[in-house]
Structures are given as C-alpha cells and as structure tokens.
Amino acid sequence: MSGEQELGITESKEHSPGEWYAEVVQKAGLADYAPMGGFIVTRPRGYAIWERIQDHLDGWFKDTGVTNAYFPMFIPESYLEREKDIVEGFDPEVAWVTHGGNEELEERLAVRPTSESIIAPFMADWTRSHRDLPMRLNQWCSVVRWEATETKPFFRTKEFLWQEGHTAHTDEEGAWDETMTRLEQYARLYEDVMALPPLKGRKPEHDKFPGAHTTTSIEALMPDGKSVQAATSHYLGTSFAEAFDITYADADEDENTAHTTSWGLSWRAMGALIMTHSDDQGLVLPPALAPDQVVVVPIWQEENKDEVIEYAADLAAELDEAGVRVELDDREHRNPGFKFNEHELNGIPLRVEIGPHEVEDEEATLAHRPDGEQETVDREGIAETVQEHLDTVHGKLYASAEETLEGEIREADSREEILGTIGQHGGYVKCGWCGDEDCEDPIKDAIAAEIVMVPLDRDEEPIHDACAICGEDAEETAYFAKSY
Amino acid sequence: MSGEQELGITESKEHSPGEWYAEVVQKAGLADYAPMGGFIVTRPRGYAIWERIQDHLDGWFKDTGVTNAYFPMFIPESYLEREKDIVEGFDPEVAWVTHGGNEELEERLAVRPTSESIIAPFMADWTRSHRDLPMRLNQWCSVVRWEATETKPFFRTKEFLWQEGHTAHTDEEGAWDETMTRLEQYARLYEDVMALPPLKGRKPEHDKFPGAHTTTSIEALMPDGKSVQAATSHYLGTSFAEAFDITYADADEDENTAHTTSWGLSWRAMGALIMTHSDDQGLVLPPALAPDQVVVVPIWQEENKDEVIEYAADLAAELDEAGVRVELDDREHRNPGFKFNEHELNGIPLRVEIGPHEVEDEEATLAHRPDGEQETVDREGIAETVQEHLDTVHGKLYASAEETLEGEIREADSREEILGTIGQHGGYVKCGWCGDEDCEDPIKDAIAAEIVMVPLDRDEEPIHDACAICGEDAEETAYFAKSY
Hints:
Two copies of one chain form a homodimer.
Chain A: H1 17-27, E1 31-33, E2 40-42, H2 44-63, E3 67-68, E4 74-76, H3 77-81, E5 95-100, E6 103-111, H4 116-126, E7 135-144, E8 159-169, H5 172-193, E9 199-202, E10 214-221, E11 227-237, H6 239-244, E12 247-249, E13 255-257, E14 259-266, H7 268-277, E15 294-298, H8 305-321, E16 326-328, H9 336-345, E17 350-354, H10 356-361, E18 363-368, E19 374-378, H11 382-407, E20 409-411, H12 415-425, E21 428-433, H13 441-447, E22 449-453, E23 476-482
Parallel strand pairs in A: 3-7, 15-16, 15-17, 20-21
Antiparallel strand pairs in A: 1-2, 4-6, 5-6, 7-8, 8-14, 9-10, 10-11, 11-14, 12-13, 17-18, 18-19, 21-23, 22-23
Helix pairs in contact in A: 2-5, 12-13
C-alpha cells in the first residue's frame, strides 16, 4: 500500500458485486492471485482470519472427542478407484502426479481431492473391537479439485484449505449423532463467531455426497441473493465401511460393519464472511475474527502531541493487558483521515480516537465499523466498555444479516412463481416438492436455481400438499435458490 | 492394539536401532506406513506431538514479528527454474503434476519442495518502501522431495511436514539478526521443550543451502552416534532478492536491494525426539510434548473398588483442574500390569498409582518414565507435587542427553585419528581444517562421515594450527560426524 490513491474501494457492492469482492480481498491484503489460474496466495491478514476460524472449530472438535491426524497428500489411482464400488460413473477431476524427479511413476498419484479413500483403509486396520469405536479423526490440510471455473478467492479456487473429519461408530445412532454434532458446531461458528445466521438442512437425494446416506449442510445467504453451501456433514451409512472393510468385533465377538461419517468446512467460510459484512469502504470483520479488534488513533497538534500520544499509548496498553487485540497507530507520516480510511478498509471493528479534548476530559471516543456510530465514553473502565462495544458490533452485524435472511425466504406454489420470485428478488423460495429430480430441471434450465436444501427432519410435513412444479403429491418442502 | 502379545517392543535399541525405532513408532501409535513407498500416515498420538511443537514455535515466532501466510502447493516449472540464476546445476528432485482431470497441462507444476521461488516474487510485489520491511512470513505446510531412500518415519519420507519462514530486511544486520533469532528459537525448542541439547553451528561453504550466504544449523546427536541436522536458518544475502527483484525505496527515495533469510524446522525434530529418549519398553516423551502427561491407575480389590476408584478419580480431576494433561485409567478389562506396560509403551511421563494403602494414608505413589523411580507422596498439594515431578522427569531426560553429547565430542589431529575415532565411537570429532572441500572427501569416502558444522563465529581461532587432513594452515575447526 504505497499511496493514498490505492486505498479506496472503487467498485460498488450493489452494482458490481463480483468486482467489488475481488477489490476488497486484494486491497484489504487478504489474498492475491497466483501465477497459475485457479490458485491464490493467502496473505497474513487473510490467513490470520483462517487461523482464528481454525482455533474455534479445533477447540470444539477436541472437546467432543476428535483427534487430529495427517494422511498423505497423494492417493494412488487404484485407491481412488475403489470409490467406484460406491459411486457410479466416478470420474475424479484431480491433479495427477505422473513423474517423480526424472522418472515416470508406475502408478500415477492423485493430489487428494478429499481423503475418504486413503483414510478408510487405515480406519479399517485400526478398528478391531467395539472398544476402538467411536474413532474420530480430523485433518487440517489443503485439497485440490481441477475444476475449470473463474477464480474467486476463497469461493472458487483449485486448491483450497479445509478440515475434513472422518469418524467410525458401532451403529447408526452414534454416527447420526456425530453428523448432527458437527453440523451444530458449524452453525455455531457461523452464528457466534462469524455473526452470520445460516439455514440448516439436508441435500435432496440426487445431490448428496456420492456414497452418502444423508448429506446435511448449512446454507448462508449472500448479499447478491445467492446461497452458499457453507459446510457439510455426511452420514455415510455403511457404504464406505463395506467398501473398505471397516468392521469390528462386538462384545459377543460377532463381526459387525461400522457406520461412518465425514464432515468438512473450507475457507469458503471466509468468502461468505467477507462478502456478507463488507461494504464500499472495504472489509468488515466481526470482532471474534478480526486480527486487530481495536485501533487507537491519537490526534494531536504540535503543542499537545506528547500528552495525547502518551494518553493513547496508556489506553492501548490497558486494553492489551485486558486481552483485547489492539494496535496503536501513532505513525507520524500519515494524517488521521488517511488512518481512518485505512483502518476502515482493513475492517478493524472499533476505532478509539484520542484528541486533546479526550485527554482533558479523561474520555475516549469510540467509533463502530461498519456504521460509524460514535460514542464518547469515560476513560475509567475502558477495557470493559470496549468489550461491550465489541459485543455491540457483533450484534449489529448479526442483526443485519438475520434481517436480510428473514426477508429473503419466500413461498411459491407454482413453477412460474418460483421463477418469478427468484428472478426478481433472489433469495430462497420454499415450495412443496414431489421428491423427483425431474421437477428441479425446468427451474435449473430457466434460471440456474436449484434445490439447495430440504428440511433436516424427514417427517416434517411439506408446506403445501402439492408439488409446485408437477402438481403431484408433495413429499417435502424444497428450498430453491441460486447457488455459488 | 488388540492383544497383550502385541504390546511389547521386541527389538533392542542397542543392537538393532533401525528396527527398534520402526517398532516404537508403530506400536506407540505414532505413524504407519502409507501404501506408496516414502510416505507415512501420522496417527493422532504422533500428530499431537507435532501440534505441541507447532504451538511452542508458532507462539515464539509471533512474539517476534512473524505472520503466517499460505502459498500454493504447486510451483510452475518456469518459476522453479528461476533458481537456476542462483544455483548452478539446479535439478530439482520433485513430484511433477502433468495432468489436471483428463487434460495435459501446458506447463507442468512442481509440488513444492520448498517455497522460495513462489514466495520471493510476491515479497517483491509487496515491498515498495523501507516501511514495508522487515517483512516476516511463515507457513506451516507439507513439502515433497522425490528422493529414493529407504523410508524412516519422520526422518526420511518423500512428503514431510515443516514450517518455512521467509523474511526480507533493509540491510545485512537486520537479516543476520533474524537468522540468529530463529536459530536460537530452534535451539530453545530442543532444550526447553524436547529436553535435547543441540550443537549450534554453521555449514561449511560447500554444503550451504544453494544460493545462501550463510547456512546455520543446529545438530543433535542420536544414540547411534550419528548427527541429525535438526533445523536450519539461512542468511541468503542479496542473491534471492536480486534474482527476484526484492527492492525498496529508502528514506531518501533511493532504490535498494533487500537482504533475505529463510529458516525451517521439520517433523524430523519428532524423529530425533523419539530416537533419543525412547528405550526398549517403548516411547519416552518429555512432559512438555506428551499428549498425556500423567496417568492415574487405581489398583483395587473387589472389597475396596469403589473407594479406590473414587479417590483416583478425585485426584485426576484435581490435576486436570490445575492444567495437567491427565488420564484416569479405570478400565475393568485390563489388569494393572497390562496398563503399566501400555502406558510405558506410549511414553506417559508420570504414572500415579492408587491402591488401598494410598487411600488409607492419604497418599499417592508416583513413578517416573523412563527410569521407573518411585516416590510415595502426600495427597495434599498433589498438583504442585506432580508438576515438580514432571520438571524432574524433563531434567532427567535432558541430563542424560547432555551427558551423552559431552562424552561424544572428541578431538583428532590426523586423518587416521578422525577415521579411527568415528569408526570406533561414532559421535563428533573436531579438528583443524584448511577450509578445502577436498580434505573432506577422504573421510567421506572411507566412512561416510562429513563435516556437519563449523563454529558460528567466523573469527574463532581453530583448535589446531594445522588441517588434520592435509597439514596446511587450519582456517577453522571442523566437526566431523556421520549424519542422517
């Protein structure tokens, strides 16, 4: 960032959301484009957000019995092909390693697109008795999927960072509880940490993870009216366990097949975060994820410089002591206006302004990102006051996202109404659905919207008696939306 | 682990160290061999050790100005080849990705063997003014080097986990300070966390990292008398900055070339840890890295079962409360002897035995791993007592490794003496050296020992006036050793 001309966001979130998003990501220093199409470089300010997401999730995983492990990044082609037993027409879009040094490999190796096929054989090896179960493994890593689409940092990249959890259980109940535990933890991350209320649901049969019994997901609404699949948690039934021979001896020494799950959250969560909260001034971050939560900006004239800076530095030190992530911006070569713009661009949730008046009155002026709301507060008890204001900022972001979401779920009871409503407003349209994939096709073909979820509870009555598309009996409620 | 017959280590550390090491790694549940030669699966008990190493180092890095980032795992061949400007005869032994999905790539991609060539161009982009420096980036990732050697978990694997730090500075002083800061942090990890005193030194000119001005390393002595390069920290001078155009405008707006460093520590540290401290009963871990630091084993008869287990559970809860990583082993289907063996195999540093006598006398019996030393202590103040004993265990491990190291540094002043001393004892031999690579060759050829380091201080007087090999004037002191 070498000059003021580069600081501002020039694109509009409302009118050119794609360009705006790309500009925020780059100018806030989150990521750059790599020389190879489809790859990005995650810069420190971006990676720090991912680290905080990891810290939260990883802590919750470990509190609920998960252990981390690390499996090879390469999977032999023959291993990957074992998924053909489970998945018809399996044709992985992967990066293939064919040479090591100057030698051609006897068997080519896939860079992992997901690790079921290399993890499952080891789970089979390690599972002998019911006492070895449940077995809960997770790894934080990157995976590669060779899909040819336009690069969108954190949303669509050939390599992406994620965690993938893989568990085995003695029975369906244990595996289903596991599936729901992880879904709830993902939803908690979105709500409590990212200030972004998601919907929880189940994928329709024809859109499940290949080989899964049930795919659950959380869906988040983006400001352009599209839905993002924000994390998934799969109950795999016994299909993977059968294909990879994950069996155990029960208390009577009888051999049984395990029930397995897998679940993952990728850095797409960061994309959803950035896109939802940010604005035409730049990045907006919830305090729980902001690398710096507070910036203290002293505003001095020559005659009061020392005392203003000292007062600001003391205040910053007190916040730091209290565990707030705080930066003191006492740079000499930048004026306050420049600093304000820069901190807004970088998404620091709370700015503390200290001028001669604040020093004289033993006060501090707080300004919220994103709405600029200001309040002058007592210097005494500042750490507690700042924490309250950070909570308020989180609450504002959450309330705004929640209000948007609530207004963007509409009902429809005909094909034309689905098309018209999504075409005009975006968002979600819920309707009765017969359960037949054929009834999704005309919506897909016309406006590229699809069924992004159905209710988690299979016994829930559909909202209408008839399928909105074919008019036959409705089996469940479908949520249509355009999707990332 | 399904039966008692599998529990014991059958190989001997003294007589078959290679087989013993492999057996400890597998039976203690640290790693398994992957289906592809050269790759391993890191199991939860192994990965937990790596996570603790990460936690320590990452905290120290961040305290000293380092920020984490993430660069692509692939490097275009043309980028990698830019290192040819720096390194003569550059021929990377890497894994090549040649196909994405069913398409052949226009340019093949190397799976990163190290990331200088993809990071440096971005550092160049991000560095404009002296205010952007120092720039300190680090990433935790895996890298792949396609070397055809026998697989040895954590020591020799084609894919390995590591961190790689890359920094840029305005001048030599800043870059050299950085190089030494990281070397000191690596040494601190070995000493304070791993209980393993290393040597600090510099690589001879002919064995530097390609393109580096100076390569420093820490070296750790293994029980078989071989040295392990335990971490490296390179001062790269301006060679990479020149090749990749990392320049900055100084305060006078003059353009200058930056000075850069890189530094890395891999999971080889885990290998050194396991090999040094473990014994014929299995794994031995220093308390700072042990996933479980303490196991509480209640030993009951039918008539006192409830009270013994309750007493043990209370004690474990108190330790847990105090922040000790503790496990209560109240399994019914295993007898105490089996449990003791299992916990010894798994390297739990401290065992707390609770029998009816301990309950009656309000005491607890502590047993140290590895030497089995026991002490019966008061129940009151148990958390503090346990912490003292954990410190004692660390101290014992450190003292033992230090004693071994001190006894294994010998002097020599002739070629025959070098060959004889290393041939007979292993360990390090230090001698005067003229500085010519040719004088290393006869030792290398005869017994595969090499100069693993020279003193950090370039001005240090050599221990002898003459080169032990050629008899010419000695320029410095060389440390010969066989090496991993």
